[in-house]
Specification:
heterodimer, A: mainly alpha, Four Helix Bundle (Hemerythrin (Met), subunit A), 2 domains, extended, B: mainly alpha, Helix Hairpins, about 75% helix
Chain lengths: ~200, ~100
């Protein structure tokens, strides 16, 4: 059994199991951790498919940045806030699973009719010549240069939108409050350097 | 490259299905969001598999773009969830129903 087949059959069940785990756990933090496992498995598949650049991007951007952002928001909102008190999806739940099963069956038939279950990719990935990252860069910066630039605008807009949406308006501080704060320093305030009697 | 490409496509489809089921059955906005991420990743896997099959890097570049768009989407979506949570103390999607007919 060739090595890439072995690696595939090791990681495919892990990725499916972690996705199912993400579906079933009630705790949002556990779901995020399952999703990280799934992303790492996908990174391994990218490596098997001769895409080492996407392997690195998947780990750095998805398993790193995006999931940290998710965990950050979960912690910000409170770990317990995500657990719904009531489950009111009595009809939808079996319906969703039935639709999912139908989707997978349909996909199976489509793949069998289209690609075929014995079709193997060419033994050598000639598009990768000279290194995958270099080849991807060449395609990205020549053929897809304009979409690439548009993407930078998109990221800028997203950053501004996040700031606008999550920004909390500062409460106006009155002059009386400033005077009160200046008049009597809080008890736990550290004494100004050189003014105290402490420290030898 | 001995694994048939169809296996990767099938795996991608199964992951996409699980993400869809998650979107349809979860009530927590954060968990719905994670399921959407799972769907996006499943499609990326299919794109990379097709890229390998057709010996063409366009699929990988498209997957790369999809990752960038997903990052932007996560940033805006999480900001919206935080804003809703501040106003309502809840991330249950059933509590946000003003725009339903």
């Amino acid at each position: 059994m060739p090595l890439d087949n072995v690696v595939f059959w090791v990681f495919a069940p892990i990725s499916v199991a972690s996705a199912i785990g993400m579906l079933l756990v009630r705790n949002a933090v556990h779901a995020a951790l399952f999703l990280i496992v799934n992303f790492f498995c996908l990174a391994v598949f990218y490596l098997l498919l001769d895409a080492p650049f996407l392997f690195a991007v998947q780990i750095v951007v998805y398993a790193g940045a995006i999931m940290v952002l998710f965990l950050f928001v979960i912690m910000l909102l409170g770990v317990d806030s995500g657990v719904p008190v009531r489950e009111r999806l009595i009809v939808q739940r079996p319906l969703a699973f039935a639709l999912g099963a139908a989707f997978v069956v349909e996909l199976f038939l489509a793949i069998r009719a289209g690609v075929g279950f014995t079709t193997k990719a060419p033994a050598v990935f000639t598009a990768n010549e000279g290194g995958n990252t270099q080849a991807v860069a060449k395609v990205l910066f020549t053929q897809y240069f304009f979409p690439f630039e548009v993407t930078s605008v998109l990221l800028l807009v997203a950053a501004i939108a996040a700031m606008v949406l999550a920004h909390r308006k500062a409460r106006a501080v009155t002059q009386a409050e400033i005077d009160a704060a200046a008049g009597e320093p809080a008890a736990d305030e550290m004494p100004a350097y050189g003014s105290g009697t402490a420290a030898p | 490259m001995r694994t048939p490409v169809a296996y990767y496509l099938m795996l991608s489809g199964i992951l996409f299905m699980l993400g869809t089921v998650g979107v349809l059955t979860r009530k927590n906005a954060l968990l719905i969001f994670m399921s959407v991420e799972l769907q996006l990743n499943a499609v990326n896997l299919a794109l990379v598999a097709f890229s390998r099959l057709h010996d063409d890097l366009t699929g990988q570049v498209l997957a790369f773009f999809s990752m960038v768009v997903a990052a932007a989407e996560v940033v805006v979506g999480l900001a919206i969830i935080v804003a809703i949570y501040r106003r309502r103390r809840s991330v249950d999607v059933d509590d946000v129903r003003e725009l339903r007919w």
